Amino acid sequence: MTNKYVDFISDDHFLDCVSNLYKAYLKAKNNITKRNFYSNKIDTIKLTFDSKFNDIDEESLIQAEILRQIDKSINNSIGTFHEQILGGIKGFEVGNLSGFDIKAVDDSLFAIFKFEELSKNIEDCIFEKLSNDARIFKNAKYYLVDFTKDTFYLEKWVVGNEEYKVSHKNVFKISGRSFYNLLSETDEAFKKLESAISTIQNKIKTEK
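User: That's the sequence. What structure does it adopt?
Assistant: Structure tokens below.
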């Protein structure tokens, strides 16, 4: 039977992933309300000055800060969502305690996700980890999956400078969109996912 939402995971798995993310949003909204807003470490002096000097009423500032805190708390859930979606593709699974976000069941692929800009030191540490592991599983490919760029790219990961560069033949950087295509073995997999999410969101709103 043809899938209703995307062609690289089952409808049931897709709906479970969306449901889990929806519950995470509800939990984040319930955990950060105006009542408990002031129970956190909020600089009320700064809040007052921001309101006066920026000519923004305090209520608007509070609502903006609440939304910022919700957004911050939901970031991990977005990462979990991508893990669960990609882990539903045949041949792949969530990394769990492996130290990776996604891995191939046959240990032929390992990946770590990136959802925000990282310092050079942190990225160098990730490169070192992937390179060291690549010396153990010599036939496996290792990826840093970059979800911060809305584009398609796949490149060998090279660190260093003009005088001294280091790389490994099986360690790569890849965009989130390209990684979805790689694992699903389809074109525009991420675009299909976005379309399916939009469809299910409209359905949820209608049901409300």
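Strands lie at 92-94, 102-104, 109-114, 141-146, 154-160, 165-175.
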